[in-house]
Amino acid sequence: MSIIPPAPNTWTSEKDTPKFNYGIEPVRDAKILQPVEMRTGRCQQFWITVKVPEEAAEGVYNGTLKLLADGKALGEIRLALRVLPFQLPSPKTHYDLTRDYYVVLFNHCSLTEEIDLTKNQAAAEKRMLAEFKNMKDHNALHPFGPCYRNNREFFVRQLELMKESGLPCRPLWNAVSSANMKWILAPDENRTPDLFEECFSNFKKLVDEAFDLTKKTLGHCEVYCYGFDEATSYRSLAVSQPPFWQYIQSKGGKIVTSGWDNNYKFVGYIEDAHLQASVIDQQRADRWHAVGGRILSYASPFSGPENPELFRRNKGLRMYKANYDGPSTYQYYEGHHIWNEFLKGARYRNFNLVYPSIDGVIDTIAWEGYREGIDDVRYATLLKMLAAEAMQSKSLEIQYEGKKAIVWLELLDELSENLDTVRLEMIEHIMGLRKILGK
Amino acid sequence: MLLTLLFVLALAAGTNSALAQKNFYDCKWENISTHYLNSSDFNAACKLMRDNPEILDFRFAPYDQKDAASLVTDSTLQRAVGDTKGNAGDARKTAFFSVCAEGGWLIGVYCEEPLLKGKGEKVPESSFEIFFAPGTGDELKNECYYQLIVELPAAKLTDYPYMSEGKDFRRLKDYVRIKTSVLPEGAWLTTIYIPWEALYDKIPLSLDKNNLWRFSIVRWGPDGGFSWGGKVHETGAAGYIRWPRPTEKQLANIYRNIINGAWKKYQTEVSAISANMSNLVRDRSFAEASAEAAIESRALANQQADKEFFDSKIKPMLKENDAIGEQVQKIKTLKFSELELLYSKVGRLSNCQYLISEARRDYLLGKMFKK
Question: Are residues B230 and A428, on separate chains, in Cβ contact within 8 Å?
């Protein structure tokens, strides 16, 4: 497929562009690597992801990549792989090894929408399952949704698909909205006690159903419920939402919403997880942790720039060392005009970490960088776990080794240090600590 | 064959027509201060503009309101943009000029402002957003663009790097010098000076051709934006800076300045590394070594107390760089071709820490596969 960009200054409008239905159109990734045309003087990159089976024995594995031109041997590249003698844990935060570093992801994965696209529930479920598995493979274990909207059957089925794909589903992010839009948008003169009673009663019914269904399907009610998106005013934050939030918290649920520093001022006492798009800032993180809350970043950057290094660094060690509770990137992919990057003049491309196809998604190198960034945090988590164990040792020598590893991590300049070097340094420390701890 | 030729001609015509729609600015060579540090430098830039009004380019157009509104979803930052009014440009005429010299590149932005009544008043709250892409215009060698925002009246610069800092990409925030002042006619001038040192591996000045860099500038004010080169991130519609061809003497002076600066910086860094080496030899304590690493050099934190790494990787690297130092000592006597060769090694000096980090990566990889 070749894409012909329009001439400069000619953007196609959303209105004039037919919607591309990726649930039906026969666009899919090839099962095996396809030949590419090589041109003189041009460098062609290939990315290879090697998936190591969990039961693989540690050691060095060697292989060969054969390069063919028109079926004839052109050369070989030696591929060496070292399988390390340890498993990576799930990522924990830098500031507290008992708290998860959540990789939350905004997305459009809704079974009802998928059925609208594919006109076929089995095909819709197959697509969704492929998407959830793709998220899991890229360390994005906590996709937003499914948000309950009186769609009992599809809500439950989507939860089942998430479970089947291997996603932990605990906590569940955005089980149901914590924003009652009828009440939030009502002008002051219409905000009567009767209207409140009507809104609150409907809200409670919806929340109760969502909690019951979640409990029955997942066996727990550890859920976050999303508030009014990017609210800024005192009225929309402090006046309109807390009574509804309190109801959710009284049932054991938690509140997550997006916004800016006004959230801390107005609803910092009641918001459990705050999603912010501003620059990564440790002071801001410390403020939220002081009230037992969490902070995640849904930008820095938003998806779009196809730069794997930027995603690896920022979603990984940069947010980690700034004491964030993880990234909550906006977003996996957006909208129905997904292959048309020239649709909106002011936008930096579409919000794509992946491109949707009829049977799943096509990855980008930014998405692979994202996965590596979270793997970096998993290595750092293991390093800190082992260091903590070493520091509890009765042997001073072992204590010192644990502290040396932490000193190294704290001195690390996560903004500019070569991330491959950082990964190898972490492995060095982990191997050293394992040895002295007798593992 | 004929068909192919026709196609090529049609393609060329199309390209020319696309180029014709874009703004070009011919940047001139001027003898401005090499360092651009003092208010006298700003006064000289102001005089240059007064004496040569033809250098000002007023081709700014109102920024589309709908597009400005959708910038809230921008991938790199959130901005507050005003409501662009149709006739706003009449009251807020905007122009820029661009000149270059041995020290660097100067951009001046001239803004008429109805809220200003005269000298002594403060520049009202507003900002400029500047994009430029080194490379060769629209040819294959186009590089990632730099995005800078200058906030007024504080003249605060924020850069939004597309890349992480590394040996091929330096953030500009530590290099750029900004000065701004209100002018008597109800306008202000802001100058933005970028020393070549920050762009040493992307210098556009060539002896045999006029290079093009994509360039765009947006003025954000209380009633919206005005743009010289299209919309934010819209690199395909950006205008171009057409760079002058310097004389061999001018280019040689640029090279000498940068080489000398890089050598000085390298010596400071390498003295910290050498100090650490003697610490390693004396088997200093871990605490002392890592404290020095934190203070003196980020890269040392990675190779602290690893004598084998130092001896096998760093020592040879330093020795090789000593040879560059010998050339730097006789820089005044070098022919232009020798100077060009020496200039090609600036990266080895400027990126010492990144190169050490890469060497460390290779060293650790070697260790890992030896086990």
Answer: no
